[in-house]
Each structure stands twice: as structure tokens, then as C-alpha cells.
């Protein structure tokens, strides 16, 4: 599509550094086009405060704020957690938020008859892929504008220069200019001193951590919690039934209080480079641990091992922006089957960044103390001799053949 044909653009708008300067940049470089800002509320809380006024002051004609929180939790977070999916230890907080935001962008773009969708993702990162693959799924003909692939700005310092020249208010300074992403599941930190893997994260520096505290500053006394699950989905915290979203929000407070869920990782980005980041995922880390604990007594060995293998693939699909694909849907169908008996209660002890197992029960438990006990049991130990003879038969045959050939 030619620039002169673009009259109306829907912008994925967060009010952060990138998208704050994109509104005037679009109007300057795309024939004073109409810019409609769209923010997907995935639980970033106070980051949405004052957003409409800011968007309009910088040139947007309107702002849509889409409440995606329940759908985000129920249709993206929980299925990923049930799969046990991670990407190199990372619990995918930014990754599974992008597809649902992109879906909302397309819905508004169609409603407003927009000519293009714009995002503020850099050409170095993963988010450009996640947004654009989702857009291709819902609107394969939609034109996409990615300013970082067009403009002459080369750094976040130059972005701040642009903002100052255009009188655009920012919530950050050059000294606190971390690249962050926040939602109800996590908070990520990248840039500045973190770009050097030799530097220790400043966990104790006031203002650095937002969802958590440093384990050094956590309470000296442990705290017990219980989580109830039904078919792999969390349904109650400490005996109180509540929605999965409310459980995550409550666990964020509990986990954050005890310094749980901090991850310092050098990850392998989709585009090929290594990138260092700090993630805060207090509630999610607890939820993953509790769910996995319950699965140890409710899923049989072969299914559990295959599920662990496929969790790697599931995590890669989410990380790489391939949520809306047949393979991800097929893997989710497999996961749903594995969760049929993942029902029960888990007890955990939280202490200075640690999650300590404190007991698990389920009506579908496959653990039999009558078989596993060291005391007298229902298990006939004589049976193992025949099993070992058959199980080891190939090894025995190979050894006999090798010995014969050596003579």
C-alpha cells in the first residue's frame, strides 16, 4: 500500500516511550493521517491512568481501552500453564499477551475501516513477530506499519530527544529508561546496566522491583498457602473459591511479599541474538509449581514424560508468536486430555524466594502407599526377577554375542 493511500491508522498504544512518539511521527510521515490509539488492558493497572488525555494531546483522534483480562487469563495464561510450557525458564508473560492484544487491534481496525495497523516493536525483538503473525491470522491483507523499521531514530536516547522536541510528557528519565512490559502475569526489565551480563541486578535498589521484593528483604517467617485445582485449573486459594484471574492477582501479592518469581536470564531471541532480561512473575511461579506438584500424583508415567517433551514445543510456539496455528491447537487438545484427573489440593510454604512443597492430595491420586511402603505391602518382590530377566534380555544376548566373537 502506498503511503498516500493510508488515511487512518490503528496504533497499538501503551503510552510508553515508543508509542508516545509514534503518534506525532505517523502524522508527520503519513500525510497527517488519523491515528486511533488502542490499548489492550491485560492487567497493567496504573499504566492505563491518564492514557486517553495523553493520546489525544499527542495527536490521536480517540483511544479505545479493551478489557482483555478475563480472556487473557482463561484462554491464554491457564492453557499455557496447564501445558507446563516455558521458554528457557521464562514463563512467557509478554509472549502470550501479544496475540490477544493483536486480536483486539484487528477488531478495532475493522470496526473503524482503518487502512493500516501500527506497532512500536523494534526490528530486533520478538514482539514484532508476535503481533504481525496474529494480524496475518485475523486480517491477512491488512497493511502493517512498524516505525522502528522505517525511521532514522537509532536509540532510546534519540527517542527521548524526539519526545522533548515535541513536548511529549514521559514517565521515565534517561537514568530509569529500562524497557519494561507489565501485565497481570509479569513484569520484564531490559536495557541500561542489564545489557551487560556481568552486572548483578539491582534487586535492593528502591523502585527497581515493582511486583516483588528482593528475597533478602522478604519476611523472616514462612507462610503456608493452599491451592485447589479442578481439571488442571485453579479454583480456590486458601479454601476460598475465586476466579483464576483473582487467584493470580492474590498470588502476585503473596509471592511478591516473599521475593518469589525473580528470573535473571540470557535468552535466545527468535531473531537470533541473545538478550538479557529480568522477569518478575511472583504469582505465576507459584501457580506453575503447585500445578506441577499435583500432576506428579495424578498423571501416569508415559503421559507425564511425553507431556514434558511437548511442553518444550508448546513454549517455543508461544514464544515465537505462533499461537494461532494448527499445531498449537493440537497440542492444547492433548493437554486438555491430560488434565482430566488433575484435580486436588496442594499445600506450599513460601519463604525468602523459595517455594517448598508441604503436601498434596487428590481423589485421582495414582500414588499407592500400599505398594510403595518399605513396610509389608501388597507388592510381591519375587515378581521383579522375571521382569529383570526379560527387560535385560537384549543386554544379555548382546554380551553373549560379543564374548563369542572375541574368542
Question: What's the short version?
Answer:
The protein has helices at 17-29, 51-57, 69-83, 98-111, 127-138, 156-165, 244-257, 282-298, 301-319, 326-338, 369-372, 383-391, 393-406; strands at 8-12, 34-41, 62-67, 116-118, 143-145, 179-182, 187-190, 223-230, 233-237, 240-241, 262-268, 274-280, 344-351, 354-361.
Task: Provide an overview of this structure.
The chain has 407 residues and is α/β, with parallel strands linked by helices. It has 13 helices and 14 strands. The protein has helices spanning 17-29, 51-57, 69-83, 98-111, 127-138, 156-165, 244-257, 282-298, 301-319, 326-338, 369-372, 383-391, 393-406; strands spanning 8-12, 34-41, 62-67, 116-118, 143-145, 179-182, 187-190, 223-230, 233-237, 240-241, 262-268, 274-280, 344-351, 354-361. A 5-stranded parallel sheet has the order 3-2-1-4-5, sandwiched between helices. A 5-stranded antiparallel sheet has the order 10-9-8-13-14, covered by helices on one side. It has a 4-stranded antiparallel sheet with strand order 6-7-12-11, with no helix packed on it. The longest helix has 19 residues, at 301-319. The N and C termini lie far apart (79 Å).
Amino acid at each position: 500500500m502506498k503511503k498516500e493511500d493510508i488515511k487512518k491508522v490503528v496504533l497499538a498504544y501503551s503510552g510508553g516511550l515508543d508509542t508516545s512518539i509514534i503518534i506525532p511521527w505517523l502524522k508527520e510521515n503519513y500525510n497527517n493521517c488519523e491515528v486511533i490509539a488502542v490499548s489492550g488492558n491485560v492487567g497493567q493497572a496504573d499504566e492505563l491512568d491518564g492514557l486517553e488525555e495523553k493520546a489525544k494531546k499527542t495527536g490521536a483522534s480517540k483511544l479505545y481501552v479493551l478489557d482483555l483480562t478475563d480472556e487473557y487469563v482463561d484462554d491464554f495464561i491457564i492453557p499455557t500453564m496447564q501445558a507446563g510450557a516455558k521458554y528457557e525458564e521464562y514463563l512467557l508473560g509478554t509472549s502470550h499477551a501479544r496475540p490477544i492484544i493483536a486480536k483486539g487491534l484487528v477488531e478495532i481496525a475493522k470496526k473503524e475501516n482503518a487502512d493500516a495497523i501500527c506497532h512500536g516493536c523494534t526490528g530486533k525483538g520478538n514482539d514484532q513477530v508476535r503481533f504481525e503473525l496474529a494480524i496475518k491470522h485475523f486480517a491477512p491483507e491488512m497493511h502493517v506499519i512498524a516505525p522502528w523499521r522505517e525511521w532514522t531514530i537509532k536509540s532510546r536516547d534519540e527517542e527521548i530527544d524526539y519526545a522533548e522536541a515535541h513536548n511529549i510528557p514521559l514517565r521515565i528519565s534517561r537514568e530509569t529508561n529500562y524497557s519494561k512490559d507489565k501485565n497481570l502475569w509479569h513484569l520484564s526489565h531490559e536495557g541500561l546496566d542489564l545489557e551487560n551480563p556481568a552486572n548483578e541486578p539491582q534487586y535492593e535498589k528502591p523502585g527497581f522491583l515493582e511486583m516483588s521484593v528482593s528475597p533478602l528483604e522478604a519476611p523472616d517467617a514462612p507462610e503456608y498457602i493452599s491451592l485447589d485445582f479442578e481439571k488442571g485449573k485453579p479454583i480456590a486459594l486458601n479454601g476460598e473459591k475465586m476466579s483464576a484471574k483473582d487467584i493470580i492477582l492474590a498470588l502476585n501479592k503473596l509471592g511478591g511479599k516473599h521475593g518469589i518469581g525473580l528470573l535473571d536470564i540470557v535468552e535466545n531471541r527468535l531473531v537470533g541474538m541473545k538478550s538479557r532480561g529480568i522477569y518478575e512473575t511472583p504469582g505465576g511461579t507459584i501457580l506453575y509449581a503447585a500445578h506441577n506438584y499435583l500432576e506428579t500424583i495424578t498423571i501416569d508415567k508415559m503421559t507425564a514424560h511425553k507431556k514434558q517433551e511437548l511442553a518444550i514445543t508448546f513454549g517455543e510456539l508461544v514464544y515465537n508468536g505462533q499461537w494461532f496455528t494448527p499445531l498449537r491447537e493440537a497440542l492444547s487438545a492433548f493437554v486438555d486430555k491430560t488434565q482430566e484427573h488433575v484435580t486436588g489440593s496442594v499445600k506450599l510454604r513460601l519463604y525468602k524466594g523459595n517455594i517448598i512443597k508441604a503436601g498434596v492430595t487428590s481423589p485421582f491420586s495414582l500414588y499407592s502407599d500400599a505398594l510403595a511402603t518399605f513396610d509389608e505391602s501388597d507388592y510381591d518382590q519375587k515378581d521383579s526377577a522375571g521382569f529383570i530377566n526379560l527387560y535385560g534380555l537384549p543386554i544379555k544376548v548382546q554380551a553373549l554375542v560379543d564374548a563369542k566373537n572375541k574368542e
